[in-house]
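Worked example 3. Consider a protein that binds fe (iii) ion.
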Amino acid sequence: MKKDSIKTLFISELQDIYSAETQIVEALPDMVKAAESPELKDAFKKHLEETKEQVKRLDKIFKALEIKHPKEKCEAMEGLVSEGAEVIKEYEKSAVRDAALISKAQRIEHYEISVYGTLRTFARELGLNDIAKLLDTTLEEEGAADKKLTQIAEGGLLTAGINQRAHN
Ligand code: FE
Ligand code: ZN
Ligand code: FE
Ligand code: FE
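Given these inputs, the predicted complex is written out as structure tokens:
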């Protein structure tokens, strides 16, 4: 395999997102605890369960392609996760903290959306259609998680609206 082949790039991007996902699995329980709004708490809890499945999905891909688990940490995710941890440290439990948590969590989702979009394209390019489907499933979940956070921030059916309350 040529070092500069798309397959090599695909594998290295898969290893990067694997590291990112495992960091998210570690970070989300603190975000569940930190959220004041029950709706936000539930959204984080649900996405934690989804994220664990996403890691399993990646495990499947790694097995199918005989890829080694990453030795290197995704530094981008390390930074994004630490911004979330800062919010928890710096703010009291409040609607303002919820708004800040959503802001940090959406950065994480956007990072993931870009990576999975790229990975899906690479998989299709390489003719790995079953793997492309697995990546697409995760991409859909990341998109839905991001939309849910927007919906919570802009005020769901049962809430007064986090951004609204943060003004008081
Ligand atoms: Fe994820
Ligand atoms: Zn990364
Ligand atoms: Fe950036
Ligand atoms: Fe996610």
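Take a moment to read the result before moving on. Residues 47, 51, 109, 112, 142, 145 surround fe (iii) ion (ligand 4) (CB under 6 Å). DSSP finds six helices and no strands in the chain.
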